[in-house]
From TrEMBL:
The lineage of its organism: Bacteria, Pseudomonadati, Pseudomonadota, Betaproteobacteria, Burkholderiales. It holds the Pfam family CtaG_Cox11. InterPro entries: CtaG/Cox11_dom_sf, Cyt_c_oxidase_assmbl_CtaG. The chain crosses the membrane at residues 21-42. It comes from Undibacterium luofuense. GO terms for cellular component: plasma membrane. It is a single-pass type II membrane protein. Its main location: membrane. It is found in: Cell inner membrane. This is Cytochrome c oxidase assembly protein CtaG. Keywords: Copper, Membrane, Signal-anchor, Transmembrane, Transmembrane helix.
Length: 194
């Protein structure tokens, strides 16, 4: 065989191989693309890994941990130890155990300088403390309020459905107190900078 015919045969084999590899690559891409709908179809037929059926209404998907057979009155209270105005935006609400709720407390620093504060919760009756679950609360960290600053601070909570049936009312009380981080401005301190 001559070099030219050997070279032509080699080029023909290379083109054939390239064509086969391109066909395999296209088939692999198509197979990968088709896997998702095939997987969903198999899951629907077998009932495996079916997260939510298509015809369930939003009402049926509601939280099943909520005890709708009873209500608990939650009263909100606020106390201060320092120069603050501090209060809940509403004094009480009725809740079902297991149901998520939010209450907002308002605080105003009445001083002409920045102050640091902390809120400490307390509960009545005392046994309610272990069932009152706060997801978000301003009491989790210290608060720094600027001069004359007003702020609304949320508390997101639920009451554990395991709370004893005899508990009908819970009082959540916060004491908001100065922790001594005063930063008086030059004007408030009476300092002349000239």
């Amino acid at each position: 065989m001559s070099d030219a015919s050997e070279k032509n045969l080699l080029q023909k084999l290379n083109r054939t191989m390239m064509g086969k590899l391109l066909i395999i690559a296209v088939l692999m891409f198509g197979f990968g693309y088709a896997l998702v709908p095939v997987y969903r179809a198999i899951c629907e037929v077998t009932g495996i890994n079916l997260l939510t059926p298509k015809d369930i209404s939003a009402k049926e998907l509601s939280n099943t941990q909520i005890d709708r057979s009873r209500e608990i009155l939650v009263e909100f209270d606020a106390n201060t130890q320092g120069p603050w105005r501090f209060r809940p935006v509403q004094s009480s609400m009725k809740v079902h155990p297991g149901e998520m709720h939010q209450i907002v407390y308002e605080v105003v620093n009445q001083q002409p300088y920045q102050m640091d504060a902390q809120a400490i919760p307390s509960y009545a009756p005392q046994q309610a403390a272990q069932y009152f679950k706060k997801m978000e609360c301003f009491c989790f960290q210290q608060q720094t309020l600027g001069p004359k600053e007003a702020r609304q601070m949320p508390v997101v909570f639920f009451i554990d459905p395991a709370i004893p049936k005899e508990v009908k009312t819970i009082t959540l009380s916060y004491t908001f107190f100065d922790i001594g981080g005063k930063t008086k401005s030059a004007a408030a301190a009476g300092v002349d900078k000239s």
